[in-house]
Specification:
Four copies of one chain form a homotetramer. By secondary structure, chain A is α/β, with parallel strands linked by helices. Chain A contains eleven helices and 14 strands. Chain A is 38% helix and 18% strand. In chain A, the strands form three sheets. In chain A, strands 13-12-11-10-9-8-7-14 form an eight-stranded parallel sheet. In chain A, a hairpin with a 4-residue loop joins strand 2 and strand 3. The interface between A and D is medium-sized, with 24 and 24 residues.
Chain lengths: 353, 353, 353, 353
Amino acid sequence: MIIVLNDRISTDEVKNVKDYIIKTGARIHESEGTEKKILGVIGDKRDLDQMALEAFPGVEKVIRILEPYKLTSRKFHPRNTIIKVKDVSIGDLEPVLIAGPCSVETEEQITDIAREMSEKGVKILRGGVFKPRSSPYSFQGMGEVGAKWISEAAKKYNLAVISEVMEISDIDTLYDYVDIFQIGARSMQNFKLLKAIGKTDKPIFLKRGISATLNEFLMSAEYILSEGNEQVMLCERGIRTFVEFTRNTFDLNIVPMIKNVSHLPIIIDPSHATGRTDLIIPVSLGGLAAGADGLMVEVHPKPYEAFSDGNQSLNYDQMNDLLDAWEVIRESVLKLRKKKIEEIEKNVSDYAG
Amino acid sequence: MIIVLNDRISTDEVKNVKDYIIKTGARIHESEGTEKKILGVIGDKRDLDQMALEAFPGVEKVIRILEPYKLTSRKFHPRNTIIKVKDVSIGDLEPVLIAGPCSVETEEQITDIAREMSEKGVKILRGGVFKPRSSPYSFQGMGEVGAKWISEAAKKYNLAVISEVMEISDIDTLYDYVDIFQIGARSMQNFKLLKAIGKTDKPIFLKRGISATLNEFLMSAEYILSEGNEQVMLCERGIRTFVEFTRNTFDLNIVPMIKNVSHLPIIIDPSHATGRTDLIIPVSLGGLAAGADGLMVEVHPKPYEAFSDGNQSLNYDQMNDLLDAWEVIRESVLKLRKKKIEEIEKNVSDYAG
Amino acid sequence: MIIVLNDRISTDEVKNVKDYIIKTGARIHESEGTEKKILGVIGDKRDLDQMALEAFPGVEKVIRILEPYKLTSRKFHPRNTIIKVKDVSIGDLEPVLIAGPCSVETEEQITDIAREMSEKGVKILRGGVFKPRSSPYSFQGMGEVGAKWISEAAKKYNLAVISEVMEISDIDTLYDYVDIFQIGARSMQNFKLLKAIGKTDKPIFLKRGISATLNEFLMSAEYILSEGNEQVMLCERGIRTFVEFTRNTFDLNIVPMIKNVSHLPIIIDPSHATGRTDLIIPVSLGGLAAGADGLMVEVHPKPYEAFSDGNQSLNYDQMNDLLDAWEVIRESVLKLRKKKIEEIEKNVSDYAG
Amino acid sequence: MIIVLNDRISTDEVKNVKDYIIKTGARIHESEGTEKKILGVIGDKRDLDQMALEAFPGVEKVIRILEPYKLTSRKFHPRNTIIKVKDVSIGDLEPVLIAGPCSVETEEQITDIAREMSEKGVKILRGGVFKPRSSPYSFQGMGEVGAKWISEAAKKYNLAVISEVMEISDIDTLYDYVDIFQIGARSMQNFKLLKAIGKTDKPIFLKRGISATLNEFLMSAEYILSEGNEQVMLCERGIRTFVEFTRNTFDLNIVPMIKNVSHLPIIIDPSHATGRTDLIIPVSLGGLAAGADGLMVEVHPKPYEAFSDGNQSLNYDQMNDLLDAWEVIRESVLKLRKKKIEEIEKNVSDYAG
């Protein structure tokens, strides 16, 4: 940590700051520039609060050098984390396909989608039963009965199930029905929920908050890992910007960035990241070519009758088009992924050696 | 609702859309422009999902005309809502001052602040005991014992208490200790929490999410009102933008905008909206002059020792400076507020007459 | 255009609005909903100012139905625009590679880069000689002598040259030295420059402004086309958002969106869109897989000695890595592009038929 | 400047970085933490390019300690800059009122507005004759004849004139007609225009770019000052964010921030900062109470007939309302301003002493 002192700081004020730091067990390295004096703090614990120091009279700015995350860092865990769900490996060579409706609506709807998706080679079925909706007057999800329907439909077609929990009590309600718990974008900083889900033994699908920075995103994952659950996959689903032609702005940059700094898998959600069916296919291809470990796509037999998110759901024909396009580039993307994994292995052994 | 049709839409596709709308009980008003055909939907229920219609083949765009909120709208409730907490009236002529530490830390700390604030004329004491922190390694709040301390300190100095609930079970935990429940920015779209808090009989202080639009903000209030609790005050605490010199960007525009479209009080939080003590006083004055119904400010005897948010907490001397500055403009601001209330009354009687 | 009237509008006020519209030659289609009255304006000219109408007493909102751009629209020009520069076709099947230093620094530097790029198969050499720099104390470019150097270097290795004009007089200065004029992000709304460049006969490379919407971007292209120059290629180079880990946020969504609504080629600039060399390769691949018509990349033999943008410039080895990775997916991307072109042809003939 | 080294940097790579820095004449202060090694660079010139250093192999991050601006800094010039235009002092105790139409339209229009504004106590008349418009099909301004009209109208009513220059040749065209040159938001980083205008002897009104950071804004002012023209006033006119209910988001925080770090006057433009007449008055009051040195407001006798910006222009009655409201708080705002000026004086003499 670097502390930049105000050029009008008094001797007493400098002493105060230094005493405070030394009391925490850290060491200080002083350095005087032509215009500013700075204090380098060495051996500071990660939880030494950067903000408080700026409140000292005479301190101009505090700059953190270390990234705040630890368990989610690739430094801590150099190889990719691979998460096994039924017979799927997430984070491994082959990108994973997750598809299904925004909401579970009826037993028939989810069963039909399950059948169709399994025929298309999808391995994980999505479907919300607790729905976070901006309006109290909108459809709020089918609740536990919906969970039962999706669970049975998935069993019939040998699919794994992912569904969202909105609050702590939903964990118990959904536990027997789902294989992966989803934490939605609006809950990314529901820290009590993160801690609770971190105590479970199921994989977690953590969506990036609509205006989350990289550090905030990884720190939310860190909440889960620090409770003992290391099966966390991240999801980029678009961020909120000034841009008007899409529901959200897909931040492609974060896909390779996560691969650089963290060992956790990163999945993309082109449905939310665009909000428009006409962009889902090219954005999916772009994300996979840039290194994403999988796709989560909303699919519905009749999007215009969907209870939610119809305008960003593919119909079955469009889903075929997506899979056809993916098939065109799949082999070459796998080649790129294989090379990347080899580089990681080389780095690990170089560093170990 | 206006539905803009694609210029290549087929006759069958037009029929599909129209049949669907008519089935919901709404009427259609067709209109053919030189380049586009549009359908005006009349008598549509507020919950007719705008998104789904865009999924119809041939539909280009759907435009909502009605604002989505109802109970929070000034049209529905033309006079200002005034919320009574002990002997304070929030939303009335006199702006309210809420102050206190970010976190309750020790019994001595909160008691000292309570004493100091009561001497300064503050009527409501803030202090968090459940703290939403980005890092799992940061101080997470004192929990119920902290609630007990702040409740006793407030009683001693005849202050009301406001504190944050992070999840549903916190409501019961805090119920006997606080006078106002705060919903933090990160929980603004924790809809299950909003519903639960809407069933209580205590006033609610709802903070705007860090990237919430006006409609989203009011719809979150609508969740609470629609459960029966009408004592909701809103809080602008800054939004996330590209701007680098402050923690958040204070959106002053929303203060008069809320007064225009809603009857609910709007309080500003200059501590979070700036993140810098050197900006709190001028921003407070600006917000009050623009019509805010009150201030919530973080205060700490020794900000540099605060467990959280020290860098945006005023010390006692700075709090004095704020109150002195406010005193300079208070009378003239009250004159402006009085005139505004008279205008509302005139509007109400004009419209009624 | 749709005009939503305030529910308290008087009969006289309605008349005023209608008279005003009729005077412009447009027709009105009235429609009364349960809560709002709306006026549909038919046959409005594109330049009927939407803003002014909102200033009429009693008008609540004005909603434009038509997109504001015309010459840049795919409706107006259904097939892709293909721009020929020397023996390169931009906007055609094969994506184009543009590479070179941020700034032309010395004759040796640009000649060495030209040689290296030509060996690597690059066809267009970039290099700025007028540099828009945030600081007046930073290197401002070599000016005309730099243009001479890059022109000669390019000639020697049979490359085309692209370089930026910052103001009108730069057009004449650079005319004989460059094959493509670049309009930088900061000049995207320098409308007098757009008009002037629209009168030239050279292809234009128009970069998206750092916070330009889709409509603004296309309207800036419209400025150039409306002056008679139809050889415009667009460039997505990242937008400004709250995101902290990259210099800009690459908006991948706009790549397929531009292909949908416009006939102009869209190139991506992963150097500016990330600001980090470690992200350039994956983002390049992602953009190309999503349909971009080419790449513009900053390359420098010794990035750490570059006069500008060193931190986002690839060195020669990294440029090799980029080309190797592109080679892996190139064939499959060409297949996707070919299919897309066939779809466009089919659409054109369907519509014509 | 602080250079954070990668924990895998080799000894040779460290040497390279150090040699490079020493060659520039700066000194190095090394410091080894428990996880990172950092180099403190002392005596670095302001133009040592931070970006390039990040391109060195083994360098993780470069952090600048010094702010990039110098001539615009309050450290360099502790007292407020006061700019005299005719008999008005901008940046002094009394905030300045600038008003007029968005565009000069006809001789009658501008003369009528000049008369009305002078009666209301306004001292500076605004009116654009070169208009930067998003669409090539929109009204582009009256050009020089409009400048003649506004100049004569102003003379008749003893007002000063401010009008915008869009490119270098506009400076000569407008020179004899205007008292203050405006640089619009879209031109804030038109660096060649900034340099040219910096060579004139007239005051400059520099608007913040729609997505300009504080540093970028001040560095654009620095361009002008570094050419010798010190009469620069800054203008906050709203920034682009995700917020949907206003045209721009007014960044109130920057008003007191500019007063802290710079000596230049800061004016607010509530017309552009809101885009809605119903918010102009409260936002104006808020800005003035927070320390703004003046207002620029768009006024038009019939906003709905304005050639541009009608929806954010006050009519004469609304302008009266604004002035009445300002009169209510004016005395108390002057008291606050007086105290602020005294504090500055005290700081200056303390530091000098």
